[in-house]
Structures are given as C-alpha cells and as structure tokens.
Amino acid sequence: MNRGVIVRLAIFIATIVLLVALIGWTAHSSWRRIKDSHDNLEWQSFQIANHVQQNILSLNNRIYLYAAYTDHQNDWTNIVTTIQAFQYWLDQNQPLLSSKTEGPLLGQIYLAYKDYIASAMAIHARVYGSRRAITRVDELADFEIKSQRMLDLSFQLAQAQQNSLDEFRLKTLRSLDVLRLTLFTALGALVFAGCWLAFVVYREMIAPLQTQLVESRQIAERQEKLASLGMLAAGVAHEIRNPLTAIKAWLFLQQKHLTPDSPEFADAELIEGEIDRLERIVKDFLQFARPPEPQFTVARADQPLIDVQTLLQPEFEKSKIEIVLGETASAQIRIDPQQMKQVLINLVRNAADSIGQNGTVVLRVRLDDKRISDRTIPVVILEISDTGKGIPPEAEKRLFDPFFTTKDHGTGLGLPIAARIIEKHHGALQYQTQPDQGTTFGIILPRVCE
Which of 213, 242, 300, 336 is buried deepest, with most CB atoms within 10 A? Predict the structure, then answer.
C-alpha cells in the first residue's frame, strides 16, 4: 500500500479516537457537573422551610389560644411537648445542613427559635402568674415579632431553595447544550473525516487502479498490434530491401553514362531520392520490428538535452525557431545516449513542425515521483514544450498508432519507435496539449539515486 495512504489512514484512525475521547470526556464532564449541582442542592432545607412554617403557625395558634383562655390547663403541656419535639428536630437537622449553601439561614432559624421559645415562655409566666388571660395586644407584641422573624427566615430559606433549583436547572441546560454541541460537532467531523477518507482511498487507490487497468488494456492492445505489425514490417522490409539495393546499384551505373544537365540525369536523381526514401522507410520498419537493446550508461539528466540543442539549433535558424534550455535539476539517469538522442530529435522536430515559423522549443528537466511498473518511484522528466498549434483531438486518439501521420512525407513510425525505446528504458512517454497553446511531451525515466 502507498505510504501516503497509510499515513492518511493513521491520521483518520487517530481523528476517530480523539473524537470518541472528546465525546466521552464531554459526556463525563457534563454528568459530573450535573451531579455536583444536584449534590449542592439543599433538598432537605426546602423540607425544613415547610416544616418550620407549619410548626410555627401551629404553635402560634396554640399559644394565642392559651393566652386568651386560661382555663385550658392542658394546652401548655401540649405546647411544651411540641416545642421540645421541634427543638429536637432542629438539633438533628442543623449539623446535617450547617455546611450547605443555606447553612447560615438554618443557623439564624435555630437562634431565632430560641428567642421565639423565650417569648412564649414569657407569655406563659405572665398568664400563670396573674391567673388571668391576656387582653391587651401590646402584651403579645414581642411574641408577634419573634414569630414573624421565624416565618420570614423560613420564607427566605424556601426562596434560597428555589434559587438553587433554578441554578441547577440552568447548569443542567448548559451542560446538555455543551454535550449536544459536542456530539453534533463530532458527528460532523466524523462525516467529514469519512468523506475525506473515501476521497483519499478513491484518489490514491481506486482511481490509480482504474487508470492502470485502462492503461494496461491499452498497452496490451498496442503490444498485440505492434507485434503483428512488427512481424509484417520485418517480412516486408526484408523482401523490399534486396530489390532496392539492386535497383540502386543499377541506377548508379546508369548515372555514369548520363549528362549531368540532361533531363535523363534529373529523372535519375528523382528516382534516387525516392529510393533513399524507401530505404529510410525500410530502416524504420526494421527498427520498429526489432528495436536494438539499449546500451545503458549513467549520465546527467540535462546532457541529452544539451546535445540535441547544439545539434538542431542551426537547422532551425532558417525557420526562426529557437531551442531554449529551460530549468534543469541535478540528477542522473541510466540511458542509451544514442537511442535517447534519437527520441529527443524526433520529438524536437515534431515540435518544430507544429510551430512552422517563429516560435520557441523549451527543453527542461524536472524531478517528481511517478507510478511506474505498479510502484511509485523518484523519476526524472525530460520535457519538450513548443508554442505550436497543438495536437487536434481527432489525431490524439491515434497518436501512437504505427503508420499514422499528419505529415505529407512521414512514415508514422516516429512516435511508436520513441515509445518503444522509452519502454525499454523502463520509463514512459506522456504529453499534454491544448489547441493553439502548444504541446509538452515528457519522457519519464527512473532516477538514479546517488
């Protein structure tokens, strides 16, 4: 598997783990905050407030009745029993809640209750000592104040409890909002990460496999076609070569007996030119059918480009086409210098033919990583770019087909031969073209690691 894909998979897995950890931590934190808020609530203090109110109101009624009707001798005994029971209840609950939020209020209720009892005892002493009922309101003023103080504190305790409930509800909602936001964010991140992983897997694995399958099928079809055409070309070339040699020899003998300026001599030169053209075609046929094995040597990547520039620049000066050596990179490649020069000459001449007049051919060396022979390796790309009219779309489909040409006197074997030479160099030949924008051919060769 591609190392880049492995790295991306590792990043994806790490992202999933982090998101799961984030969700777990957020859920735990939200639950802990809710639990802490729940624990901090004075659940029992609300009961104390109600209990205090009920007991004080009940005691008030009894004490008022006792003060107004002295003949109820058993009332005071019941009042004392209730006072003692309520005092005991306060003693039991005050230490339990003294450290809570409403602890200070409970402490005030405890102290106020002592004053309340003292005031009640004063009423009893007055009634018991004088043996008469209390008839004036001012005699109960202090008891009224102490009773109202107890009721006010109980109401404050109830209000504090309500505030705690509201705060608990608010904190709970906030914690749930944080948890919900985290869950939706994590879900969105998971969806994004899944889409990103699917895209990476498709781009790095599926798409190259599809491209490789198509290319392999095309290469197999081309190889089959080349093998058939190669056998045909070898047979035809062998059968044509011997008669051509004989014809050329007899023409040479006849030219010796002709006057140089005569029409017959001109006809003989024309025949000789056509024989040379046939010999060139036969030579291309043979090279296409049985390309020689390359004699590899390690060379600088820019050296073949420099040699071709030096060789062809004078030839193109008449057409005002300039061959420029562009950016180069320091690298080495294993090539057969003569075969690589043949490929470059063919590509540069094709570029010049596409330009026609007044243009530029740029030679460059570029470093990259490409997939060759089912693996990605460091490569050197020798590029030939022109400012010509580009390759027509109808010609692109048959660009590497043997014997297909758009030139008047071409054999259609230049690019097929170049492609076969590059294949024997364990490389590939690629191109990019746009109408009226020019064409760039790239010779991809494995880089020699120093």
Answer: 336
